[in-house]
Amino acid sequence: MIWEVFRQEKPGDYHTHCGNVHAPDREMAKQFAVIQHGRRKPTESLWVVPQEEVGEVDADEVAFGGTTDKSYRWAMAYTSSTEHAKEVIASQQEQEQAEADRQRGDD
Amino acid sequence: MDVETVKERAGPREFSPADDMPEKYRKAATRMIQFHANSEIMGAYLEKPFIRQAPSIDRKLAFSAKVQDEIGHGQLLYRAAESLGIKTREEMLDELANGEGKFLNCFHYPMESWAEVPMIAFFVDGAAMRRQATLKSSSWEPYAHAMDKVCFEEGFHVKHGEDIMARMATGSRKEQQMLQDAFDEWWPRIIQFFGPTDDKSTHHDFSAEVGLKQKTNDELRNAFLDAYVPKAKSYGLEIPEYPRIEEVGDGEYHVEEDDLDWDEFFTVSKNEYEPGKGQIDSRKAAQEAVDWVRDTIEGDANLPGSQAAPAAD
Ligand SMILES: [Fe+2]
Ligand SMILES: [Fe+2]
C-alpha cells in the first residue's frame, strides 16, 4: 500500500507534500516516513495518508480560476492615490505574487 | 496539557488539533472563532441585497464576488472552530439561526441605500482586516491558517470598498451628501466594532494569556483610527462632532469612549436589537429553505459505494 507523506517544517507551518512510502499499515507508514522524509530536512511533524484516499482534479478537467476575465477580484484592479493601511498593502503584495506565479505556470 | 502549561507555551500558531488542550482553552477559542464565523455570514447576508442595486455590471460582478468570499470565510472559520471539538458546524449554524449565536455589532443594523455600502465594504472590512492581520499569530493554528487565506482576499475587499466610496465622494453634490449622511450614521458603530475598552470586556484576559488574541480592543481601535481617520478626511468626509476624537500626537488618534452609546451596543450584542433580530430570522429562513439541498447531499454521501463515504480505517 502507498502512503502519501506531508511534512511540516516548523510548528504552525502548513504540512506540504514531500513524497510517499510503501507500507502495509498506518503505523509502519509513519515509521518509514520518519526515516525517509524526516531525517535530513527540518521536520516538526509528518502526516501519512493512504494514496487511494486522495482525490485529484487537474487542469485538464477544469479551468482553475474560471474562463472569463476576473481581474475585478484582485486588489490591483483598484487604484487610488491615497495611502493604504499596511495590512492592505501586504495583502496586495501576496496577490501580486500569486498572480506572477500563475502567469509563470501558463508559459 | 494544563492551563498553566498552555499559558507558558502560548505563542503564534503554537497549538493544533494534535495537542491535548484543556477544555477552558477549547471553549474560549470556540467562542471567539464561532463569533468570527457568524459575523462573516451575517455580514454577507446584510450585503447580499445590494448586489442587485450595484450601479454597473462591473460593480455587480465585483460586489457579488466579495459577498461570495465572505461566505467562504464563514465556512473556513466554522472548520477552524470545529477542530476544537466543542461544537459541530451544524450546531453553530443552528445557534446562529435560533438567535443564540453572537456576531459583530455592525451587522445588526439595517442597510437601506447604496451610499451605506462603502460603510461596510470599506470601513468595516478595513476594521476587520486590521484585527485579522493580528490573528495570523493566534495560538490556535487552524485559526491562524484560516487568517492567511482571509487576509489574502481582504485586500481586494477593502480596495474595492474604497473605490465605491471614491466614486461617490467625487460624484454629484447629492451623492456626496448621501455619503456624508451614511458616514454620520455608521461612524460610531464602526468605532464600536472593536468592543468596549479592555477593562469593560469580559473575555479579554484569558484569551490574551493563552495567545488566542494578540492585541487588546484599545490597541486595535487606536490603530484603526490612525489609519482610517485620515482616509475618511482625504475623501472629504467630515468626522462627526461626537464621539469626540482627539489627535494625541504624531498622526495618532484617541476616541472619547463615553461619547458612544454602550447601552445600545450591549443590547445589540445580546441579539436583542429589533433590526438585528430581523436579520437573524431572515437568515434562518434562508437556511431552512435550502435544507433539502443539504439533506440530499448528506443522504447521497451515505449510500454504499459513494465516493463521499468516509474511509474505512
Ligand atoms: Fe471576511
Ligand atoms: Fe471582507
TrEMBL record, chain A:
InterPro entries: PaaB (IPR009359), PaaB_sf (IPR038693)
UniProt-annotated stretches for the region Disordered: 85-107
A Pfam cross-reference name: PaaB
Domain of life: Archaea
Protein name, entry field: Phenylacetic acid degradation B
Species of the source: Halovivax asiaticus JCM 14624
Taxonomic lineage of the native organism: Archaea, Methanobacteriati, Methanobacteriota, Stenosarchaea group, Halobacteria
UniProtKB/TrEMBL annotation, chain B:
Alphabetical list of Pfam families matching this protein: PaaA_PaaC (PF05138)
InterPro entries: Aromatic_CoA_ox/epox, Ferritin-like, Ferritin-like_SF, PaaA, PaaA_PaaC
Lineage: superkingdom: Archaea
GO molecular function list: phenylacetyl-CoA 1,2-epoxidase activity
GO process annotations (BP): phenylacetate catabolic process
Gene Ontology cellular-component terms listed: cytosol
Biased composition, class Basic and acidic residues, residue ranges: 1-12
Segments for region (Disordered): 1-20
PANTHER family linked to this entry: 1,2-PHENYLACETYL-COA EPOXIDASE, SUBUNIT A, PHENYLACETIC ACID DEGRADATION PROTEIN PAA
UniProt-recorded name of the protein: Phenylacetate-CoA oxygenase subunit PaaA
Organism: Halovivax asiaticus JCM 14624
Encoding gene, per UniProt annotation: paaA
